[in-house]
Amino acid sequence: MAVTPLAVHDLAAAVLGCVCQALDEAAAAVAEQPGCPCRACVVAGAPAWDGCSDPCGDDAGGQLTVHIARLFASPPTRFPEEDRDVRGVRGCAAAPLLAAELVVTLLRCAPTLDERGCPPSCEELEAAARVVHVDAVTVVNALLCCLPGTGARGRRFVLGPARILEPVGGCMGVEQRVTVALAGCAPCPGGESP
Fold it and tell me: pTM (2 decimals)?
């Protein structure tokens, strides 16, 4: 099976949709938990922290993005290792699997100094931490549930660590990495066989 030109982008879009739906479900199940931000998109490279306020008026606020950190060849029997074997010039045979490392980044508003310059209260800090902790678990659960169903025969994937993003510029959140195997290789240029 060949990897189509849109395979990586379609995977990123499917992950975005899955995580967004899971965030809305978490908001329905957990009191005071915001749902999927209205600013949710697939981006090229690490996202800009454009803002965490609520531009939609729906209290969800924040920013959800999915981007590809890297693409690399991986031997089918040693996924997710990077293939370091020297190959001949016939490109397709060099990459039995295409591996895509995706990064899900979810940003929410962080408590900041008030108009008098006083730091946020412990209650405000704990409420913000609770939102981020629920978000982190929700993103992990979404990937574990949805990724196997994104391919015709399921997908092999390795869930990386989740990283809590400390407050910067009024935003905080969670970053989750996942490496997904895409079987096959694209047809060789000029129709040559591998």
Answer: 0.86
